[in-house]
Amino acid sequence: MPAPAPKATACSACRDGAAALDFTFTMAFQPIVDLRHGGSVFAYEALVRGSDGSSAAGVLARVNDTNRYAFDQACRVRAVELAARLGVDCRLSINFLPNAVYQPEACIRATLEAARRTGFPVERIIFEVAEHENAQDREHLNRILRAYRRQGLRTAIDDFGAGYAGLGLLADFQPDMLKIDMALVRGICTDPVRQAIVRSIVSMGESLGIAVIAEGVETEDELRPLRAMGVHLFQGYLFARPAVEALPPVQWPAGAGFGAAPEASVAPVPPVASPPGAAAFSTVSLMPRRGTGMAFGLG
C-alpha cells in the first residue's frame, strides 16, 4: 500500500475532487439482490466506467500517486449524485481506497455533503474495501472503518477469502457485511472444498451478526448450493449486468416466484455487538474481477 501523501496534498485533492483530474469518467450500477420474501433489490454497487461507457481499464490507467486522492473523492461524489438522480431507493455501495484517505473524518466530508445536497440518505451508503487492501496498514484501515461507522455509514469487506489478511481484519473490526469472493463461488456446485469454506464463512457471519453476500454468481447451479447454505444476498451476471448511468432490470430465477412482490423498504442491517472489553461501536484496490468489474467498484 503506498504511503499517504502529505496532508496538504491530500486535503487539497479531497477539496477539489473531479476538478483536479485531467480525465472524466462515469458510473455503472449493478444490483445486489435479496432472495427472501419474494425477492427485492438490497443495494446497487457503483462501478467506474469511461465517459463513453467503456470499461474501467482506460480510467484506471490514468490513476496515479498524484491524482489518487482526487479520483477517490470524485468517485464517491459521482456515485451519490447519480444514485440520487436515478432514484435509488435502497442502499448504495461505494468502493474506496484506504491509501487515498489521509484523515477519515476530513476525507468523508465531500461524500456527506453530496448526500446532503442531493437528498440521498447517509444511512443507505455502504463503503466497501477489498480484503487485500488492509495487508500493509491494517490499523489505518481500522481507523477509517470505525470513523465511517460513527458517521452512520455501513461498511463491507469485499472479495472476502481472496487474500490472506481477512480473518485478521475481522478479528479487529466487524463490518456490517462480508462479500464472498467470486473465486469461491465459481464451481461451488461440484466442489466440496469450496462448499466447506463458504459454509464456514456463512456460519461465522451468523455468529458475528454480519450479513453475507455472494458476488459473481453467474449460474443457477452456483445459486442453489449457496441458498441451501443460508446465503440470501447475491450479486452477479445471473441477475443483472452493470448498466451505465442506469439501473438495470433484475432477471429473477425462472419459475421460483421471485420478483413478484414489491421491493422491500430498506431494513436496517443488525448492528455488530462489541466484543467483551472492546469499545462500543456506533451505529472502495485495483484488482480485476469478472462479473462485477474491479474491486474498487471500477468494473
In short:
The chain is of the alpha/beta class. It has helices spanning 7-16, 57-60, 68-86, 104-107, 109-118, 138-150, 166-172, 182-185, 192-208, 220-228; strands at residues 25-34, 40-50, 91-95, 125-130, 154-160, 177-180, 211-215, 233-235, 243-244, 288-289, 293-294. The chain has one domain (22-252, 289-294): TIM Barrel.
Written description of the protein model:
This protein has helices spanning 7-16, 57-60, 68-86, 104-107, 109-118, 138-150, 166-172, 182-185, 192-208, 220-228; strands spanning 25-34, 40-50, 91-95, 125-130, 154-160, 177-180, 211-215, 233-235, 243-244, 288-289, 293-294. β5, α7 (166-172) and β6 (177-180) form a beta-alpha-beta unit. It has a single domain (22-252, 289-294), classed as Alpha-Beta Barrel (TIM Barrel). The radius of gyration is 18 Å and the shape is globular. By secondary structure, the chain is of the alpha/beta class. Mean pLDDT is 82; it is low at 1-5 and 260-295. Helices cover 32% and strands 19% of the residues.
SS elements, strand count: 11
What's the structural domain tally? 1
Which superfamily, in CATH terms, is the homologous superfamily?
EAL domain
Percent of residues in helices: 25-40%
Q: Report the average pLDDT across residues.
A: 82
Proportion of residues in extended strands: 15-25%
Total helical elements: 10
Strand and helix order: HEEHHEHHEHEHEHHEHEEEE
Tell me, what's the shape? globular
Q: What is the CATH class name? A: Alpha Beta
Query: In what order do the strands lie side by side in the largest sheet?
Result: 1-2-3-4-5-6-7-8
Helix and strand composition category: alpha/beta
Q: Could you say what the CATH architecture is?
A: Alpha-Beta Barrel
Integer-rounded radius of gyration: 18 Å
**Main sheet attributes: strand count, strand direction, barrel closure:** 8 strands, mixed, barrel
Distance between the termini: 21 Å
Low-confidence stretches: 1-5, 260-295
CATH topology: TIM Barrel
